[in-house]
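Figure-free illustration: sequence to structure, shown twice.
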Amino acid sequence: FETASSTMAFCLYELACNPEIQDKLYQEIKEVLAKHGGKPTYQALQEMPYMDKVINETLRRYASLSILNRTCIETYKVPDSDLVLEKGQRITIPTYAIHHDPEYYPEPFKFDPERFSAERVRERHPYVYLPFGEGPRMCIEVLFWWAKISKMKK
């Protein structure tokens, strides 16, 4: 399915189900656009941190990739365990399960953009949010997705 349109549809659904979040986002948009002559400029979009939180929470709840498949490029011993990943071994990373694990995201099925406040992001392991994968094999769609979402913010 098409990533940007699906994400926007899920985002609109969550905003409809959570009017307090919708109101907070509306106020942010209204205040920021007032400072920018009503135009959703690049700078204006950069001044909408709550918008980013809402989008990130939407991507956590409804990531387009439920799993990531990778091939180990060198033998690797997992720290603090007896597990060894051999070179050439196929690895599946269950992103949906990680994004909905209460150890990392309490009440994982609750739509909570504040999970993406700077403080709460710092408290989490950096690899428990993987809507597009991570590292050199990150989905190239992320570049197109951010461009589309930025246009849709208008």
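We now fold a second protein in the same way, so the two outputs can be compared directly.
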Amino acid sequence: LGMVRLEMLVDGLPMFGTESPQVDYAAVANAIGIPAVRVEKPKDLRRALQDALHRPGPALVDVVRERGLGLTCCPVSNSFVTDDMKATEIAGLLRSGVRVTVNSDDPAYFGGYVADNYVALADAADLTTQEVVQLARNSFEASWLGDSQRAAFLAELDRYVAAYDATAV
């Protein structure tokens, strides 16, 4: 550890660790309207849990929705690390207006490319065609594409959807 610190000082890098000022994440959360408490000691935990249980609504989800932030979801790989793919939760977020996107997570390992994730989620959550289209729109809207590229991809998606015959499915 001493050599790492010495190398960091020589390279002009900041010291990462306990010497750095600690961020008060509770204060940051409170500043953006998310009720939070700081837990520093085990005795603080009981109060924090009691406060959390008495606060209405999922405030973080509200902030994500209001700011139009994207949430990436990988349904197929979810089933490898949790009890299921969390289709109900993902669909609930989508239906409540959260910008949810569907992605793959290491397809060679988990066995699901993006299309597989769309199909698995659509089947498990009984998504409508419009909801699947919204998932695709969300992917472009939440991306880091430039405005002109984003607009071009969204226009292409709109053309594809307009040409799609839902009765043929």
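Summary for the second example: The first helix runs from residue 2 to 11.
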